[in-house]
Design brief:
The protein is an alpha/beta fold. The protein has 9 helices and 8 strands.
Length: 326
């Protein structure tokens, strides 16, 4: 009985050790799973920044790609059809490629109004030419806006020049019809440009002649609505065309990719360490497991011995058979 108690204690202790070791293995495995997940996320972020650098490099070499990957091919197709005299009138576009900003610090304000789809638009003189441009764009799986406009050889007269800069006054174009389309469709002659938000509010409250709305350098919009001054914040801080510094953007994308690369190397080192810890923990379990088998066999053998002894004692204690004695 004392041996049984001893073997039971040893077996319980071995089992407790194995449970603890199993928990340690599970904990290391959880850390390893988390590490693998972080490695995957870091690899995706690194590739994202690397691809951003490549895209920026491509855009810097052919800037019209910002309006669509196949915009250069569309421009070439339009030029080819123009040389073959297959358009009834000239085709102008994309609009952004025809515009120049006089003062770069107004880029955010200008692009708050003239967004990517506008700057990537084309201008034609008739419906037939519009259909041809759309056909070419569809063949390249490129979606573009096409304005039909009655061409003029001069910029439209918009009346007296307001006392503050307007979007029209800050833009020059290779073709007057580009500015005319923007005047007719987006009223750039009545959109004021002002440095600060407070000045913009004061200007709108004063009902500055010729100004319908005002944009700040940051691209925030201030305008009249229902008799009161309204403010619409510009949440997009990215410029795509005017005043874009590709070199600094590429350097930033390269820096971010390098950060992820360093983090990835650190995670991969941690992964190797975790895998080593897991192997060692499993190895310790394998060393202890035979002790459980030995303790279990010893316990079973002691129980069997006890049972045999108890049976022998019971047999000796039984009274003799009376009939045999007689």
């Amino acid at each position: 009985k004392e041996q049984i108690k001893l073997f039971q204690h040893e077996l319980e202790q071995v089992r407790n050790d194995l449970f603890g070791m199993d928990d340690a293995v599970k904990k290391v495995q959880e850390e390893l799973d988390q590490c693998n997940e972080q490695i995957g996320q870091t690899q995706r972020m690194m590739r994202k920044h690397e691809q951003a650098e490549v895209l920026l490099d491509q855009q810097s070499k052919n800037r019209v790609r910002v309006f669509g990957d196949h915009m250069p091919e569309l421009i070439q197709a339009v030029a080819k059809m123009t040389s073959q005299r297959r358009f009834k009138q000239k085709v102008i576009g994309p609009i952004g490629s025809q515009l120049t900003l006089k003062e770069a610090h107004w880029a955010m304000a200008i692009e708050s109004v003239l967004k990517r789809d506008i700057l990537g638009s084309f201008i034609v003189g008739c419906k037939e030419d519009m259909m041809e441009v759309n056909r070419l764009a569809d063949g390249l799986q490129l979606k573009v806006n096409v304005f039909i406009y009655k061409y003029k050889d001069h910029v439209l007269n918009t009346g007296p020049q307001p006392r503050i800069p307007t979007m029209l006054s800050m833009l020059t174009a290779t073709d007057p019809n580009v500015l005319n389309v923007l005047i007719d469709h987006y009223r750039i002659h009545s959109i004021g440009l002002i440095t600060t938000r407070d000045e913009a509010f004061s200007l709108i409250r004063a009902n500055e002649p010729g100004i319908g709305e005002v944009y700040t350098i940051e691209g925030h919009k201030i305008f009249q609505r229902g008799g009161s001054v309204a403010f619409f914040a510009n949440k997009s801080k990215a410029r795509i065309w005017f005043g874009v510094d590709f070199s600094s953007q590429m350097a930033e994308a390269r820096r971010l990719a390098e950060e992820q690369r360093v983090a990835l190397a650190s995670l991969q080192t941690a992964k190797v360490d975790l895998e080593k810890r897991r192997r060692e923990a499993i190895g310790e379990m394998e060393k202890v497991r035979p002790k459980q088998n030995v303790a279990s066999r010893q316990l079973n053998r002691a129980k069997a011995d006890l049972q045999e002894l108890e049976n022998a004692v019971r047999e000796e204690a039984q009274p003799p058979d009376v009939s045999e004695m007689e």
